[in-house]
Amino acid sequence: MQKKLFTLGIKVRDYECDMQGVVNNANYQHYLEHARHEFLKTIGLDFARLNEEGILLVVKRIEMDYHFPLRSGDACEVSCQLERISPLRFGFVQQIIRTSDQKPIISARVIGTSINRQGRPFLPEVLDKQFQPE
Amino acid sequence: MQKKLFTLGIKVRDYECDMQGVVNNANYQHYLEHARHEFLKTIGLDFARLNEEGILLVVKRIEMDYHFPLRSGDACEVSCQLERISPLRFGFVQQIIRTSDQKPIISARVIGTSINRQGRPFLPEVLDKQFQPE
Amino acid sequence: MQKKLFTLGIKVRDYECDMQGVVNNANYQHYLEHARHEFLKTIGLDFARLNEEGILLVVKRIEMDYHFPLRSGDACEVSCQLERISPLRFGFVQQIIRTSDQKPIISARVIGTSINRQGRPFLPEVLDKQFQPE
Amino acid sequence: MQKKLFTLGIKVRDYECDMQGVVNNANYQHYLEHARHEFLKTIGLDFARLNEEGILLVVKRIEMDYHFPLRSGDACEVSCQLERISPLRFGFVQQIIRTSDQKPIISARVIGTSINRQGRPFLPEVLDKQFQPE
């Protein structure tokens, strides 16, 4: 079952660029996280509220391929698509594309899980439901 | 002569929040900088291009009053108004307001100057022109 | 009564530098915060533990003068001295000095207060005691 | 040929922690980068100086496994070991270990290359030499 693609527009902020004049490597991870959290809201999951309720969404693994850097003045689109990895693990396939010419900037795969405050796996029903046949 | 007010909308990103659950103090400075750079573009000054040409816009002083914190999910408006401090120094009067209820979040005053690579004062003409009577 | 001076050594990390090749303005605020929190530990106050106990140390105002920028490879010393502003407000007078030649980098004054989760002023006794004549 | 292991101690700074009370995922990438740059200095390569000379060290791929989070007050050791991937690509195998109990925090593999300002591959001799039989 193919999941719907979520896309978020982000404009480079100058403080995100480092001495090479390009967005610092770690900041793309910020872009990816922000897009995931905005995506999760669209399916009814609020990272901050879950956190207050004692349900922690955590990243277990991240893989990022850096194709081309973004610079000051650039805008990009950060996409996010959900995939099931295992009963308790879910993945986000994410791309960052430069808006002006659709040039690929980053390809990423982020694997997460959900735990409670005791560190036990705890998958919110609404997240589980994303993977049910409709 | 009253300068036009520039305003930029910014949405809080979760990674900008610290363990108190609010936007970390230093990140408001990022918001203010981003709004200043976007404002400067509207008057024809590009921070990154100036930098490549050897003209460095630098902050000499910043004053920030913290009225109320922003949280995950909040959006804000960051304003920016130019004022002349001296022939070679210019100020930015900036406010951050929570979008939902116009609650004041930050009041700031940022004093900057412009130097060349040798550290000598060098005010771009276009910046100087902002302060001429029209 | 003169308070003891606390000093913390910090080495510039390359990701803290922006496209001008110098430490980004907002990152000095990170240095100042880190030095304050390390200083507070020396008088028995742990920012994170206080936070868990529902006591929030918050910044109300910050003033920073930027004298000279730090670059990749630089090390600095961040100092911190406590001063009483009012019964419920305390100040930190802070300096950042480049280690190699003691060149002044930043002079700052940070005014804070302490509140509980209801937003009511709540000054921890150990902080109050700092201002008693010994 | 086994390369020497480089290790750098880093203490968690409170602003690096997010609303979950743990170091934000992207900040581990900052730790890894800082350790790589410090390691490179020990073999005679200065990231900032190379950058000024027009030689850009760039990350092409990063893989990070998140084993356990760091919290306020934690210290860690970030290690770095060089491996050759191909004539023009080199890898860094990196670990982050909690200092107090040697608990594994992050395992990472970072693949980089070196290019000149025209985007052409350009491997500094000193980096190339790291892979020669001694």
What's this model, at a glance?
The structure is a homotetramer of 134-residue chains. The first copy, chain A, has 134 residues and is of the alpha+beta class.
SSE blueprint and pairings:
4 copies of one chain form a homotetramer.
Chain A: E1 6-11, H1 25-42, H2 47-52, E2 55-66, E3 75-86, E4 89-98, E5 104-116, H3 125-129
Antiparallel strand pairs in A: 1-3, 2-5, 3-4, 4-5
Key attributes of the depicted protein:
homotetramer; 134 residues; alpha+beta; Thiol Ester Dehydrase, Chain A; 5-stranded antiparallel beta sheet; 3 helices
Strand order of the largest sheet of chain A: 1-3-4-5-2
Rg result of chain A: 16 Å
Name the CATH homologous superfamily of chain A. Answer: Hotdog Thioesterase
Sum up the overall morphology of chain A in one term.
elongated
Q: What structural class do the secondary elements of chain A suggest?
A: alpha+beta
Oligomer: homotetramer
Report the major sheet of chain A: 5 strands, antiparallel
Name the CATH architecture of chain A: Roll
Largest interface: A-D, 21 and 21 residues
The helix content of chain A, as a percent range, equals: 10-25%
Query: What is the number of helices of chain A?
Result: 3
- Tally of strands of chain A: 5
CATH class of chain A: Alpha Beta
> Termini separation of chain A (Å)?
9 Å
> What is the averaged pLDDT score of chain A?
92
